[in-house]
């Protein structure tokens, strides 16, 4: 299976686990003499089965990420870490530029006047450069996701 397929399967398993957990909790108590809509013990067993599948799949995805290169010398694991940090750096610059450029109404000359503590155009330019780098890296990651293989059975 391709890495992209494994990632989609992981998202599906996570969604199914959340649904089963919610159903189990919703049926944990019922009125005496009534039967719950679903058996919480059976749901717990299903949750355990799905959790074991998810654990196996995550381990295989992580192994594939370590073995797969996005570009020479850059593993998928390192690329994902770089992407996460690029997002953090981009978000800060965007938030900083937005906060520094916020207008403030002054009704009298005696009211405090606030000035920007950063060069807004330069900060926005940095954010734009980071966004471009992030898009390029993310595109490359997505391309590799559709060519890289994940070893082992899906375990369905």
UniProtKB/TrEMBL annotation:
Where, if anywhere, are coiled coils annotated? Answer: 3-67
Tell me what organism the protein belongs to: Oerskovia enterophila
Q: InterPro entries, alphabetically?
A: DIP1984-like
Q: Which UniProt keywords apply?
A: Coiled coil
Report what the protein is called. Answer: Septicolysin
Which lineage is the organism of this entry classified under, starting from the top rank?
Bacteria, Bacillati, Actinomycetota, Actinomycetes, Micrococcales
NCBIfam families (UniProt xref): DIP1984_fam
């Amino acid at each position: 299976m391709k890495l992209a397929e494994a990632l989609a399967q992981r998202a599906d398993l996570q969604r199914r686990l959340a649904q089963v957990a919610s159903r189990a909790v919703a049926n944990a108590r019922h009125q005496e003499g009534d039967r719950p809509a679903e058996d919480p013990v059976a749901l717990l067993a299903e949750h355990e089965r799905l959790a074991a599948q998810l654990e196996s799949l995550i381990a295989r995805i992580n192994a594939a990420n370590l073995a797969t290169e996005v570009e020479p010398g850059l593993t998928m694991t390192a690329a994902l870490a770089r992407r996460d940090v690029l997002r953090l750096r981009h978000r800060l610059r965007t938030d900083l530029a937005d906060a520094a450029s916020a207008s403030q109404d002054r009704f009298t000359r005696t009211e405090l006047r606030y000035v920007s503590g950063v060069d807004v155009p330069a900060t926005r330019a940095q954010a734009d450069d980071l966004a471009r780098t992030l898009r390029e890296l993310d595109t490359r990651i997505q391309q590799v996701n559709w060519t890289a293989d994940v070893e082992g059975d899906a375990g369905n």
